[in-house]
Amino acid sequence: MRRILLGIAAAVLLAAPVFAADIPAAAPIGKGPIMMPPASDWTTCYVGGNVGWGRANHDYISAGGLSEGRTTADGVVAGGQAGCDAQVAGYWVLACKG
């Protein structure tokens, strides 16, 4: 019984450094304040465009069944956007888009 207890005690003493192996040896403690990254600024102007292909088919019947028809549209669809954003009072962004 004595050998078993000595074996367990030796295993615990020899394994003790393994438990702290994930802690770096030179961990900086109390080196000063943590520096925060600079805040982002959303103030900017932009211009953009888009081009695509569109296809639409519409069947319609008016009230009373007096008129019926079909509309088909097929072709290029294009557009654009432009605007300016201004960041004010820290977290608010005002947007002007056209």
Question: Would you mind describing this structure in some detail?
Answer:
With 98 residues, the chain is an alpha+beta fold. It has one domain. The protein has one helix at residues 2-19; strands at residues 44-61, 68-88, 92-97. A three-stranded antiparallel beta sheet has the order 1-2-3, with no helix packed on it. Strand 2 and strand 3 form a beta hairpin. The radius of gyration is 36 Å and the shape is elongated.
Write the layout of secondary structure elements.
Elements: H1 2-19, E1 44-61, E2 68-88, E3 92-97
Antiparallel strand pairs: 1-2, 2-3
| Strand fraction | over 45%
Note the gap between the termini: 87 Å
Largest sheet: 3 strands, antiparallel
Low-confidence stretches: none
Radius of gyration: 36 Å
Mean pLDDT comes to 77
- SSE ordering: HEEE
Q: What is the count of distinct domains?
A: 1
Number of helices: 1
Please list the strands of the largest sheet in the order they lie side by side.
Answer: 1-2-3
Overall shape: it is elongated
Descriptive keywords:
1 helix; 3-stranded antiparallel sheet; 18% helix; 98 residues; alpha+beta
